[in-house]
Design a protein that fits this description.
Helices cover 0% and strands 54% of the residues. The protein contains no helices and eleven strands. A hairpin with a 5-residue loop joins strand 4 and strand 5.
Length: 114
């Protein structure tokens, strides 16, 4: 079955960086778009960005210029590089893929202190 496992979250000071990873299994990773979402405290889950099968990338306006998505198909892993972090980036971050249905990882907590 489809499994997505996020890692790399933690506590970082404002202005710092983190790189999240999401390792996938149970499907042909190379033929699907992968998405990152986040859920900030008291808010609905929101889209952060997408990487296509030809490695084209789109990110939300709130993170444009600070977040970068990459993928390594050989490792079945998608990454979210987060730079210039702000306290409002504090959230649980999830990766997601839609195959026959939409699948989510368990999430990884990112906390940015001011």
């Amino acid at each position: 079955q489809v499994q997505l496992v996020e890692s790399g979250g933690g506590l970082v000071q404002a202005g710092g960086s983190l790189r999240l990873s999401c390792t996938a299994s149970g499907f042909d990773f190379s033929i699907y778009e992968l998405d990152w979402y986040r859920q900030r405290p008291g808010n609905l889950r929101e889209w952060v960005g997408t990487i296509t099968i030809d490695h084209a990338r789109k990110v939300a306006d709130a993170v444009k210029g600070r977040y970068t998505i990459t993928r390594d198909d050989a490792k079945a892993t998608v990454y979210l590089q987060m730079d210039s972090l702000k306290p409002e980036d504090t959230a649980v971050y999830y990766c997601s893929v839609t195959t026959t249905g939409t699948h989510w990882g368990q999430g990884t907590q990112v906390t940015v202190s001011s």
